[in-house]
Amino acid sequence: MSYEKDGIKQIEVEELKELLKSNGEDKVFIDVREPEEYEAAHIPGVPLLPMNNIPFFLEGFKKDKEYVFICRSGNRSQNVSRYLKENGIEKVVNFDGGMLSWDGEKAAGPEHQIKDVNELKEWNK
């Protein structure tokens, strides 16, 4: 069941699983951890865009999309969500509990890292 914390929508494991299954075109899932964390274990199909790169990618985020951010515990993804909201991207969601609480399928290795703004724009389509 989702709830709000500091003005940011929070979701937990079961809701994230449902969102990933439905994967509507209006939602974009992004892992904001560091590359080595992502390569150790991540949710299959979710790309990596490390938190410290987010400010350089602002123009690539679309106001009509909903962004679901994932990190290790839910703290970094909460900060990313707040930052984007402060910069005009209203539809942000934090996966509270992060990968520490994820009990679904995991993949290892460098599946996909978003490396530039144009790639983020393509991912948003």
* Helix fraction bin: 25-40%
CATH topology: Oxidized Rhodanese, domain 1
What's the multimeric state? single chain
Mean pLDDT across all residues, rounded?
95
Beta-strand content bin? 15-25%
The spatial strand order of the largest sheet comes to 1-2-5-4-3
| SSE topology string | EEHEHEHEHH
CATH class: Alpha Beta
CATH evolutionary superfamily: Rhodanese-like domain
Question: How many structural domains are formed by the residues?
Answer: 1
Give a short account of the largest sheet: 5 strands, mixed
Number of helices: 5
Number of DSSP E strands: 5
Q: Categorize the overall geometry.
A: globular
Radius of gyration: 13 Å
Structural class: alpha/beta
Distance from N terminus to C terminus (CA atoms, Å) equals 28 Å
